[in-house]
Amino acid sequence: MTPKTNIGDMFDAENFRTSGHALIDVLADQLQRRLTGVGPVINWKSPELEDQHWQQPLPQQAIFNADDLINKLQSDILPDSLAIHHPRNMGHQVATPLPMAALCDLVAALTNQAMAVYETGPSATMIERQVIRWLSELIGWKPTITKHINGILTSGGAQANLTALLAARQHSAKSNVWKNGIADHKLLKILVSEHSHYSISRAAGIMGLGTDAVIKVATDIEGRMDVTQLQHLHQESLIKGEHIIAVVATAGCTPTGSIDPLLQIGQYCNTQGLWLHVDGAHGASALLSEQHRQQLDGIALADSVVWDGHKLLYMPATVSAVVFKNPANSFAAFAQDASYLFQGENHETEEFNTSYRTLECTKRMMGLKLWAALSLYGVEGMALLIDEAFAKARLFADKIQADQAFELLMQPQTNIVCFRYLNDGLDAENLNLLQATIRKSLIESGAFHLTQVTLHGATWLRTTLMNPMTQASDLDALLTSIKQFAKN
Ligand SMILES: Cc1ncc(COP(=O)(O)O)c(C=O)c1O
Questions:
Q1: Distance between CA atoms of residues 157 and 197, nearest Å
Q2: Which residues in this protein are found as N6-(pyridoxal phosphate)lysine (predicted)?
Q3: CA of 197 to the centre of ligand 1 (A)
Q4: Hey, which end of the chain has fewer CB within 10 Å, N or C?
Q5: Angle, nearest 10°, between helix axes 157-172 and 198-206?
Q6: How high is the mean pLDDT of the chain?
Q7: What pLDDT is stored for residue 147 in this prediction?
């Protein structure tokens, strides 16, 4: 029998302490098991069948106490989660989060700093500004020790890209689009690589430009934007009387991890007066690494950069930065009149009120975990993670190339490796089907998590090697399992 609920118990600090210790014990045990590869990567169950277990009546009274909750987590919920820290988890670009950063997220949850304006999150605001200054310094923009900060943290790279493109449009369009709408601006376009993330065309849709406003630039065999084609398409667009609001370069494109030639693109954009946005959601973290940062040469020429912490900065989701070279542009995306929140009208007065610059009003205190990680491990420590992930991708590529059963799509530029199992007896369509079937079987077996991507009609298996626990033996085991599954 669970006792009747009372408000005092709901907020009891001692209960919180006791349950908190018990919960951390459960999580630490699970972390340990997963780091050492105990159990499946995914406890695969059909979503249709699982859904039937989550159709309970709405509880009118308590149905369990805190201990029951922890037991439920331990018995059902945690075992049925994707084992992100498992060495054989090689699927999406989702960080294996640093445990200390996860603890910071608990602080964010309990203190619940709404962050819309300074007074709803004084220290949270300051920490966020500190993080933005650090990221800007890594990009190569002069550290802003002045009052004016040049960006914000927001929930996810998709939203960060939208924010940057709204700013780009407001900056480049000939009149105030925020206020007057786009009726007078039918020909606003965005130039972007064919491998750009879908959030760019989705942003075009949201912004009322229509997804057809996104002009796709072809890539070379290494998946990088072809700069000659970019120039050609830009000139063609000028002849048609179109107005390019931004060129979007991708640093670490989603399908292959390729990094567009930022220096060449930046030089072209700068001479043509084009806004350059770099979607570095995945790859901007290479800036931390002495070994790999030269791949991002030219990023400082950008007008705006997006950088996800919950990818290669090893943060729990979500924390994404959108930063602008010119601090004034950080106000360009949104211009709101809400006297219940903002008492000032100008940027000077609203400098410390983050919601002037974000889509979000209430916003999680997401800078804390990033500030903590950079403080605990420094750039050098965080770079170890990048170097390790990129080296593992190269090692895996070498293993694939050395095995005649497989074809490697391209040498990895970051930590994403695409490859396929070969079978001479199959036509193109069935070879594609085989990759998809192998992947499905591997996931449903619980042995590995990996993804797939279709490029120019060919389906490739895709691994994102960002789990520091993955060893060479796990990569060998993946190739062996693929061969076995293919034979079966
Ligand atoms: C290049 C790129 N940009 C943007 C995004 C979207 O980021 P988020 O999932 O944080 O919204 C992704 C996600 O994979 C990405 O790879």
A1: 10
A2: 311
A3: 6
A4: N
A5: 50
A6: 95
A7: 75
Nearest CA to ligand 1 atom 7: 157
**Mode of pairing for the β-strands spanning 320-324 and 451-455:** unpaired
Ligand 1, from 154, 193, 199: best to mutate by most atoms within 8 Å of Cβ? 199
CA distance 317 to 382: 17
Q: Which of 308, 315, 466 to mutate to test the pocket of ligand 1 (most atoms within 8 A of CB)?
A: 308
Surface-to-core class of residue 337, CB atoms within 10 Å of its CB (0-12 exposed, 13-18 middle, 19+ buried): exposed
Nearest-angstrom CA–CA distance, 353 and 345: 12
Q: What is the CATH number of domain 106-375?
A: 3.40.640.10
Question: What is the model's pLDDT at position 3?
Answer: 65
Q: What are phi and psi of 4, to 5 degrees?
A: -65, 140
CA of 93 relative to ligand 1 center, distance in Å: 8
Distance 478 CA to ligand 1 centre (A): 26
* Distance, CA of 378 to CA of 372 (rounded, Å): 9
> Which spans in 153-226 are helix H?
157-172, 177-180, 198-206
Asked if residues 191 and 250 have their Cβ atoms less than 8 Å apart, the reply is no
| Tokens 């370069």, located at residue | 249
Long-range pairs, 287-294, Cβ under 8 A, ≥24: 287/138, 287/139, 288/138, 288/379, 288/382, 288/383, 288/386, 289/383, 289/386, 289/387, 289/390, 290/383, 291/383, 291/387, 291/390, 292/386, 292/387, 292/390
CA distances from 356 to 73, 176, 352, 363 (A): 39, 17, 9, 12
DSSP string computed for 216-260: EEPB-TTS-B-HHHHHHHHHHHHHTT-EEEEEEEEBS-TTT--B-
pLDDT in tens, 33-91: 999 999 999 999 999 999 999 999 999 999 999 999 999 999 999 999 999 999 999 99
Map out the domains of the chain as residue ranges: 14-83, 106-375
The per-residue pLDDT for range 392-427, each reduced to its tens digit, is: 999 999 999 999 999 999 999 999 999 999 999 999
Q: Coil, strand or helix: which one is 154? A: strand
CB 249 within 8 A of CB 167: no
Q: Determine the distance separating the centroid of ligand 1 and the alpha carbon of 401, expressed in angstroms.
A: 29
One-letter identity of residue 98: L
Give the amino acid at 29: D
Using the atom order of ligand 1, give the atom closest to the CA of residue 283: 1
